[in-house]
Amino acid sequence: MPELPEVETVLRGIAPRMIGRRLAEVEARRPDLRRPLPAGFVQRLTGRAVIAADRRAKYLRLHLEGGETLIVHLGMSGRLVIEDAPPPVAFHHGPSIAVADAPHTHVVFRLDDGTRILFADPRRFGLMDIAATDDLDAHDLFAHLGPEPLGNGFSGPYLARAFEGRRAPVKALLLDQRVVVGVGNIYASESLFEAGIHPARAAGTLSAEDCDRLAAAVRATLDRAITAGGSTLRDFVGASGELGYFQHSFRVYDRADAPCSREGCGGTIERVVQSNRATYFCSRCQA
DNA sequence: CTGATTTCCTGGCGGC
DNA sequence: TGCCGCCAGGAAATCA
């Protein structure tokens, strides 16, 4: 479920806590997530300082001293839990109370200030990898990705080119990370609703104007979600923060049979399945 | 090449 | 109450 806005929010949550800090201890509680952890995972990370952090598509990247980058993907159920350092002994009264780690915690980083960052992922669709920082674009995970939807490479004309001659439903192509990254099942439905485009339209039949509206809608939808994520961050980070899921209100996603939210529409949100994925839309608003 | 389908994994929930 | 089956979904693999 983490799509670009959620991953961006997680990045903004962990970056100030991790940049400039050293990974004092790294614990891998199992050898694999969706795929095996890279060879020497613990040894290659332990003792390294985090010098920068960014996001590409739905991947978090922690750039480490020594020229390597830790790549983290949350899959659909992955979370990062920030756990503050325990208080100094002088302020500690009574017996310590052991608090269990979040369920399904697979990897734990302890920073040199005592903060712990827990990676928990029940469904284990997440992944971690380590790659040379100076050649990340060539890495398998990044080499075939399309443009960032919030960057300069994404626009109506770009979409028009990408859609040209394609007969697949436009919704399917929005989910294709080679076309544009970061859009998942939720924001694909939301963006198409905002643009007034039917999800089943063959992508190649979209006009230039359709593509302009869709590009703008994708951008606006993701921007709004990032803004919402930012306010969520302010609410709960600072204490113990659990990053990965957020409560958003969606206009069509998971609202089957609910009235369309567009003023004066009076239609009903429909749910259909496209290539085994639920799609939500309003047939009055989207043609 | 394109597009559709399957696979991975586990918690949660509907239905009986 | 209990259990079975299905659904959720990112991305890659596989199939037609």
UniProtKB/TrEMBL annotation:
Binds 1 zinc ion per subunit. GO terms for biological process: base-excision repair. Its EC number is 3.2.2.23, 4.2.99.18. It comes from the Bacteria. CDD domains: EcFpg-like_N. It catalyses: 2'-deoxyribonucleotide-(2'-deoxyribose 5'-phosphate)-2'-deoxyribonucleotide-DNA = a 3'-end 2'-deoxyribonucleotide-(2,3-dehydro-2,3-deoxyribose 5'-phosphate)-DNA + a 5'-end 5'-phospho-2'-deoxyribonucleoside-DNA + H(+); Hydrolysis of DNA containing ring-opened 7-methylguanine residues, releasing 2,6-diamino-4-hydroxy-5-(N-methyl)formamidopyrimidine. The keyword Magnesium does not apply. Keywords: DNA damage, DNA repair, DNA-binding, Glycosidase, Hydrolase, Lyase, Metal-binding, Multifunctional enzyme, Zinc, Zinc-finger. Residues 251-287 form the FPG-type domain. Residues 2-126 form the Formamidopyrimidine-DNA glycosylase catalytic domain. Pfam families: Fapy_DNA_glyco (PF01149), H2TH (PF06831), zf-FPG_IleRS (PF06827). InterPro entries: DNA_glyclase_Znf_dom_DNA_BS, FPG_cat, FPG_Glyclase, FPG_N, H2TH_FPG, Ribosomal_uS13-like_H2TH, Znf_DNA_glyclase/AP_lyase, Znf_FPG/IleRS. The active site is at P2, E3, K58, R277. The keyword Protein biosynthesis does not apply. One of its GO terms (molecular function) is 8-oxo-7,8-dihydroguanine DNA N-glycosylase activity. Its cofactor is Zn(2+). DNA binds at H104, R123, R166. Involved in base excision repair of DNA damaged by oxidation or by mutagenic agents. Acts as DNA glycosylase that recognizes and removes damaged bases. Has a preference for oxidized purines, such as 7,8-dihydro-8-oxoguanine (8-oxoG). Has AP (apurinic/apyrimidinic) lyase activity and introduces nicks in the DNA strand. Cleaves the DNA backbone by beta-delta elimination to generate a single-strand break at the site of the removed base with both 3'- and 5'-phosphates. Monomer. Belongs to the FPG family. This is Formamidopyrimidine-DNA glycosylase. It comes from Tistrella mobilis (strain KA081020-065). The lineage of its organism: Bacteria, Pseudomonadati, Pseudomonadota, Alphaproteobacteria, Geminicoccales. The gene is mutM.
